[in-house]
Design brief:
Helices cover 21% and strands 29% of the residues. By secondary structure, it is of the alpha+beta class. Strand 6 and strand 7 form a beta hairpin.
Length: 244
């Protein structure tokens, strides 16, 4: 077993491999390295019994068929894996999403900027200047948790959550950014909105973003938002291949 790894049973058909106790890009890259190693074995047909892997901030949950593979056997298989050093693991894709900041699309932008001593344009420039790393997908299908924000944009969740957040809303809290794929309640600070579809069941890969991707947010105006929203889904985003 790798240094710092812990095996935690998750019922009788799942195993969680934990790498640390904090949200940290290096820890998450270890999660992604194990995920890549397991998927390579699965694709090669050399890991019967493993059904699915689910990366999180600091752990990887592995769902398996206990009639084919038991807990001890799975742990032994993981111990025997040749996991590539972090520097040799291909990273995720580079994805650029358009975002209309402020106004009706981002009603909390003024408040977020003021909390960090920033004007509106300064807050937009600072947030859009970050390369947002996708730590995990959770809460709802296609919902990314992305870090890491500078101190000026780091603040707690809203004291009173909203009962409805519009789909595509870009929101911040606790040093991270999320994008709501569907209309739903939400307690994060809404600062903008993207016309990109984060989840579409009709696509071959329904979830737009993946854990390990790097995301850049391109500021746009309200008119361009409306124009892009009327275009085909593939015309609203830019995706580059995996990086290191």
């Amino acid at each position: 077993m790798g240094a710092g790894m812990r095996y935690l049973p998750s019922g009788d058909c799942a195993l969680t491999v934990e790498f640390g106790a904090r949200v940290d890009r290096r820890i998450n890259r270890q999660v992604m390295a194990l995920d890549a190693a397991l998927k390579a074995r699965m694709q090669a047909g050399a890991l019967d019994g493993v059904i699915e892997t689910v990366p999180t901030f600091r752990s990887l949950t592995i769902h398996y068929n206990p009639l084919v593979l038991d807990h001890a056997q799975l742990c032994a298989r993981i111990d025997a894996l040749d996991i590539a050093p972090l520097g040799e693991v291909a990273g995720g894709r580079r994805v650029t999403l358009p975002v209309a900041y402020g106004g009706d699309h981002g009603p909390d932008l003024d408040e977020v900027g003021a909390a960090g001593g920033l004007g509106i344009e300064e807050a937009i420039a600072l947030h859009s200047g970050v390369v947002h790393y996708v730590y995990m997908i959770g809460f709802a299908p296609g919902h990314p948790y992305m870090g890491d924000l500078p101190p000026e944009l780091t603040l707690p969740r809203r004291k009173t959550p909203r009962t409805r957040i519009a789909p595509g809303t870009v929101a911040v809290a606790v040093g991270q950014t999320v994008i709501y794929p569907f209309a739903s309640p939400g307690g994060w600070h809404a600062i903008g909105r993207t016309p990109a579809a984060l989840f579409d069941i009709t696509r071959e890969e329904p979830t737009l973003l993946r854990a390990g991707d790097e995301v850049r947010l391109r500021p746009i105006g309200a008119e361009e938002f409306d124009d892009l929203a009327a275009r085909p889904i593939e015309d609203r985003i830019t995706i580059e291949e995996a990086h290191r």
